[in-house]
Amino acid sequence: MAAPALPQGQNQQGLGQAPTIKAEVNLVNLFATVRDKNKRVITDLKQDDFKIFEDGHEEKISFFSKEMTMPITMGLLLDTSGSEQNMLGAIQGAGSRFLRRVLRKGDEAMIMSFDSDVDLLSDFTDDRGILDRAINKARINIPGGGTIAGNPGPIGSGNITGTALYDAVYLACGEKLNGEAGRKAIVIVTDAQDEGSKVRLEEAIEAAQRTDTVIHILLVADPRFGGNGGVARKMTDETGGRVIYVNSEKKLEEAFDQISEELRSQYTLGYYPTNKARDGKFRKIRLDVDKDLKALTRRGYYAPRG
User: Fold this and answer.
1) Strand partners of residue 283
2) Which pick of 73, 173, 177, 300 has the fewest CB atoms within 10 Å?
């Protein structure tokens, strides 16, 4: 695979100039999960139970479905920096079981790892064997450079040491998921500490927003290193995903189960925005349901340009 380019320097003006990240369709799609006060997923709502607002203006819902079998294209991103070395074995086992549970006919997944580099361990495939082998290729980056075992070549180079979380999200969304259709998600297992990325947090989030990708984060933090819950929450809140805190192998399994349920219990809604301007600007979205329920979906999108 050819190495994709990351933005260079500190004067990069976001992703608006990146030719591979575009929004061309007029229909705005939302994928929403609804939970009650007890965190239970609600799957029996009707179109009339929802209201969509764009920049404060109510929009007419043109498409609604609670069909749970729409294909998913997914990326599983594994943090292989030194801070995760005590959990990597558990992460690999739980990650393989998660993909076996969540992937169904028509779904595809890719596997990436990130530390000082971002490595593509498997491109999109529905072959569980390939995905399992890819997950097991992930190796912890030894502090000071090198890895416990060699990874495939990087698709984005970072510093000699570091954790290129933002670069990994940017590349997964902007270079890989950009060309995919339908439901798109990335599940990241990380402590959300970034060191050495070439792109900023805001650019990584924008890459996800421009490609309609939902980010879910399993926040696995070694007490010696800590975790960045603020970064994790911002990534997930802005794209319609969840952050789940994990402090044990049992919690890791439970977290993967919750994400699996989330991905398989979504409503699909679509609307044609009243604002027809093709100005490339960010539009804020609010999805309302009954006051005793909470809908989880992305907070906005970028309008087409030109």
Assistant:
1) 301
2) 300
- How many CB atoms are closer than 10 A to CB 36? 12
Strand order in the sheet with 293-296: 61-65, 267-271, 28-36, 293-296
Half-sphere CA count of 108, side-chain side, radius 13 A: 11
Phi-psi sector, 196: left (phi>0), alpha (psi -120 to 50), beta: left
Distance CA 225, CA 83 (A): 6
95-98-99-102 Cα dihedral, nearest 10 degrees: -160
Residue 213, beta-bridge partner list:
184
Place of tokens 């390939």: 130
Q: What is the pLDDT of residues 90-125, one digit of tens each?
A: 899 999 999 998 998 999 999 999 999 999 999 999
What are the C-alpha distances in Å from 263 to residues 70, 74, 98, 167, 212? 10, 10, 11, 24, 14
Q: What is the DSSP letter of 47?
A: G
The Cα-based distances of 146 to 80, 140, 210, 268 in angstroms read 12, 9, 34, 44
Q: pTM of this prediction? A: 0.84
**CA–CA distance, 55 with 62 (Å, rounded to integer):** 18
Kindly list the structural domains of the chain, giving each domain's residue range(s) and its CATH number in brackets, ordered by start: 28-68+266-302 (no CATH), 72-249 (3.40.50.410)
Task: Specify the residue for token string 């595809």.
Answer: 108
Q: What is the 3-state secondary structure (H, E, C) of 172-196?
A: HHHHHHHHCCCEEEEEEEECCCCEC
